[in-house]
Structures are given as C-alpha cells and as structure tokens.
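ugh ok fine here u go
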Amino acid sequence: MPGKLKFYKALQNHFHRISDHMKINYYMDICARKDEMLDHWVKEIFDRDGDGYISHFEKELYDHN
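structure:
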C-alpha cells in the first residue's frame, strides 16, 4: 500500500464528524507542505511505542485496514 494512502486511511481513525471534503483538503494540504505538522501526525499515528522510529511492526498495524 503506498504511503500516502496508508496515511490517509490512518487519519480516518482520528477525524470524526468532519465532512469528507474537509478531510481530503486537510490531507492534501499537509502532504503538500511537508513540514513539522506532517512529522507530528506521522509520529502520533504510526510511532506506537514513542521511541522516535517507526518499526516494521508499527507499519504493519495499518496495512490491513
């Protein structure tokens, strides 16, 4: 699964009661800027143990969603 698609699907677990249009605009904006906000979201979603690295196991958690 490509990284952007995996990231988009993972964000779905964090956004509730927000229109799809708003979710997609936020996602497209954050990916286009590629700044510290993107780093923050990636850490929050994928770095489950908080060690600062995203392990193969942590990546696998979202491969089957």
